[in-house]
Amino acid sequence: MTKTDKRAHEPLIHITKRNQIPWWKSWMIRAAAIILALVVGAIFVMLMTGYNPLQVYSAMLDGNFKSSRKFWMLLQNTSILLCISLAVTPAFKMRFWNTGAEGQVLVGALASAAMMFYVGDRLNNAVLIIVMLIASIAAGVIWAVLPAYFKAKWNTNETLFTLMMNYVAMQLVGFAIMIWVPSGSNVMGVINSKTESGWLPNVFGQKYLINILIVVAVTVLMFIYLRYSKHGYEIAVVGESENTAKYIGINVKRVIIRTMVLSGAVCGLAGFLLVSGTHHTVSKNIVGGMGFTAIMVSWLAKFNPILMVLTSGLIIFLQQGAGEIATQLALNESISDILTGIILFFIIGCEFFVHYKMNFRAKHGKD
């Protein structure tokens, strides 16, 4: 084969994995992706609705910052999503694909609601809150340890196992509400609305501030745990290679179960915060899909708890803004959902360019 023939078979584009790039360069790529997403979204809105794109994005800002209530809702929802994201992160870093955070949070919420319903009028409020917290964490741990034990013992598929546990949790909540609400409406009203037993207190007059402060503390502790503790090191090693972990003396089965205990506990905490600090009731939809959204948050942040603050805040900002777009401009909610999807598509897609580079075939002169 001649030299000319070899050139003819060279691909136009050759993709290679990048060496580690400076942090500022990776964030410039992400910032460029967000700007490009806003431009594409603006074009889409203009073509589909005829509205000025600036008017649409202004509505998105209004959905998060127009009033103090909306701003506090932004912080509250961000804190809950962040808490669930922190819960799934140790498991995902260990390459244990825990898709059951939705159910783990839900059973934690159910446990808190049950304590409020059955013993809310018998215990001092401070004691009741502690009992609710313990019950929620215990429920979340049980729901997480079951698939972890089967994975460690018989190497079952943790993705399917944890996913199916979500539906079991939903049916448990439905069954409990059917018992607690004799009218048959299957809607649980606010629990202890008169006495406020089991409700977390307002801090500085703000209903959600205590939730936010608790999640901030959990974020710092999780960062220290994963980055500087022996357990965090073992999680990273197991995630890289189970064979390597076994070779250096790490008990992989114990690490799997221990890590899922932690994940379940934090999910249970999230369930407690949803019931005691936010809604004061329970329903099948109380988690609102955050258990699945948390997976995306964790991956986008590269399992870094500090970066998860930004990714979870961005996603909640987009969700609340999309809802406001539909309300203010009287648009179908599908338009706002598509706009959100476009932005997330660019944000997720830009990670390809952070880790890989495209090399174009060089032009050759005549021989």
Question: What does this entry look like structurally?
Answer:
The structure is a single chain. Helix content is 73%, strand content 3%. The chain contains 14 helices and 2 strands; from the N terminus they run αβαααααααααααααβ. Strands 1-2 form a two-stranded antiparallel ribbon. Helix 3 (53-65) packs across helix 13 (305-328), helix 4 packs across helix 9 and helix 9 packs across helix 11 (252-279).
Name the features.
367 residues; mainly alpha; two-stranded antiparallel ribbon; 73% helix; globular
**H/E element string?**
HEHHHHHHHHHHHHHE
Largest sheet: 2 strands, antiparallel
Question: What is the quaternary state of this protein?
Answer: single chain
Give the count of helical stretches.
14
Can you give me a brief rundown of this structure?
The chain is mostly helical and 367 residues long.
Question: How would the blueprint of this fold be written?
Answer:
Layout: H1 3-8, E1 13-17, H2 23-49, H3 53-65, H4 68-93, H5 101-119, H6 125-154, H7 158-180, H8 209-228, H9 230-240, H10 242-247, H11 252-279, H12 290-300, H13 305-328, H14 333-355, E2 356-360
Antiparallel strand pairs: 1-2
Helix pairs in contact: 2-3, 2-14, 3-4, 3-13, 4-8, 4-9, 4-11, 4-12, 4-13, 5-6, 5-7, 5-11, 5-12, 6-7, 6-11, 8-9, 9-11, 12-13, 13-14
